[in-house]
Design a protein that fits this description.
single chain; mainly beta; Porin; two-stranded antiparallel sheet; about 5% helix
Amino acid sequence: MMNVFCKTLLASAMAVSVASSAYAADPLQVYGKLNVTAQSNDVADETETTIQSNASRFGVTGEFELSQSLEAFYTIEYEVDTGDDTKENFKARNQFVGLKGDFGAVSVGRNDTILKISQGKVDQFNDLAGDMKTMFKGENRMAQTATYYTPMFGDFQAGVTYVASGDADQVVGDNTTGEDGVSMAVMYGDAGLKTTPIYAAIAYDSKVKGYDTARATVQGKVAGLVIGG
C-alpha cells in the first residue's frame, strides 16, 4: 500500500464547486465537486497508469424555517465515478433530513458517523489514494442512522449517532442478524481553524460494522503551519 501511495503521481487535479448563494433558511442549494487525477502506480513490479475519480460528487441541500426557533434541513448527495467504464457509476453518499433549534440538531437517514466526522480536516489526503479510510477503521457512512448534536457550549459540542441493527453493514461474520451500534464524540473548536487556533476531538464507536473503535484528534496552527494527527 505504501509503495503504491509513494509512487502515485498527481499529474492533474481539479475541484469545481457550484452552489447557489447561501443565506439563512435557504431552501435549495445545488453543489458539486469534480476531483480527477492521473496516477502512475507501481504495483507488483509493474507500472499502471489510471485516470482516477476521487469521490467526485453532486447534491442538493437546504433549510426551511418552520418557526422562529425551529428549522428543517436536508441533504441528498451522490458520488459519480468518472473513471468507471461501467454504466453503474453512481453511488449514494449522505442522504438525510433533520430538525435543528435551541435543543441542538437531530437527523435521520444515510450519514457519516460522529466518529468519522470528528476527525475534522486532519486527513490531508481525504478522497485520494492515501485517505485514512484505507489504513484505519472508523471511516463509516451508514444507511440507517439517527444523529444528534448538542448546542454549542462555548467552543465545545458533543454528538452521537445511533446505527440501527437493520443496517446491512451491521450484519458481520457468521451472524444472520445485526446489532445496534453507537458512535459518539466530544469536539472542541473549529475544524477549519478559522475561529479557534486548535481543534480537538475524542470519539468512540461501539459495535459499528462489528468494531469498537476509539479515536483522538488534535490539529492546530503553529507559526502559520497547520499540524495535527
